[in-house]
Each structure stands twice: as C-alpha cells, then as structure tokens.
Specification:
Layout (H helix, E strand, L loop, with lengths): L21 H13 L3 E4 L10 H8 L3 E4 L12 E3 L3 H11 L1
Parallel strand pairs: 1-2, 2-3
Helix pairs in contact: 1-2
C-alpha cells in the first residue's frame, strides 16, 4: 500500500485476468498486422485477447512461434521453433 494515501499499488502492466485497455489493444492489433516479424516467445497462445495478436500476425505471414510445446497457431505460423528461450534468444541477438 501507498505510505501517503493507503491506496493499493500495482505495476504499470495489465495483470492476468484484467481487461486490456481498448486503445492499447487496437494499437497492438494494428502493429501486429504491420509487423515484418512477430515473435511469440514461450507462450501457449491460449489466453485471449492477447493471443489474437498472433492470429493477426499469422494473417500477414509474420508469425514466428518459439515454444517447447505445440500451440493452436503452429499450423498458421511462418516459422515454428521448438526449444529453450535461453538458447534461442542469444542466437537471435547475434544476428540482429
């Protein structure tokens, strides 16, 4: 709680179970549709509406799924990588 007012403190992020702000989601959806590459990293892609961004990216052929397990978007992804993010991300960093 806040020492000054006693109110609850929370981070400036949307927590699981909270609604996404409409304007932020609309902008994210637009950006997903415009992306050259959309990386879905370590997500099961089962929680909506955020998982829908992967679907939007898949529509334009920019979706790359990196996860240990299969997701519902694997068949629509441009690329699918099965593996550990701890190994994958340093390889991406080397190529950027």
């Amino acid at each position: 709680t806040c020492d000054d007012c006693g109110g609850l403190l929370k981070p400036g992020v949307v927590l699981f179970g909270e609604r996404l702000p409409r304007v932020a989601y609309s902008e994210a959806n637009r950006l997903a549709g415009d992306a050259d590459v959309f990386l879905s990293l370590g997500s099961s892609l089962t929680v909506h509406p955020a998982a829908g961004l992967a679907g939007r990216a898949a529509e334009v052929g920019s979706l790359v799924v990196v996860n240990f397990d299969a997701t519902q978007y694997d068949d629509r992804a441009d690329r699918v990588v099965r593996g550990d993010l701890a190994a994958f991300l340093p390889e991406v960093e080397k190529r950027i």
